[in-house]
Amino acid sequence: MPLKVAIASSDGKSIDLHFGQAPDFLIFEIKENGDSKFIEARKNIPPSDDPNLLENHDNALAKSVDLISDCDVVLASQIGPSASKAILSCSVQSYSIRGLLIEKALKKLASSKLVSKPVPRPIIH
Known about the structure:
Blueprint lengths: L2 E5 L16 E7 L5 E8 L9 H15 L5 E4 L4 H9 L3 E4 L5 H10 L14
């Protein structure tokens, strides 16, 4: 089963953005054989860009999390505790990885056991 990965990156080359600052999430797929490919870029409205940050932070965060909720893993340079908890509630694993090249991070992820054992999705009735 392929692994879908969301990445917060400013340049499409390295993992260099905080989850809450990512204007886009780059979506990659890692196949069982370890090969990875770019799928799409998903436009995000970062919670940190909201002028009413204190009033709307939870709503903005929920929208960001919903945007990547079909992924198995999210990689960002930093992920705050509230974002991490919200991401995990969707059965998405989150990892803070600062400055690592995307290609290298995907290879490391492919060599881990996550590829053969993705996180089970909750059943919604």
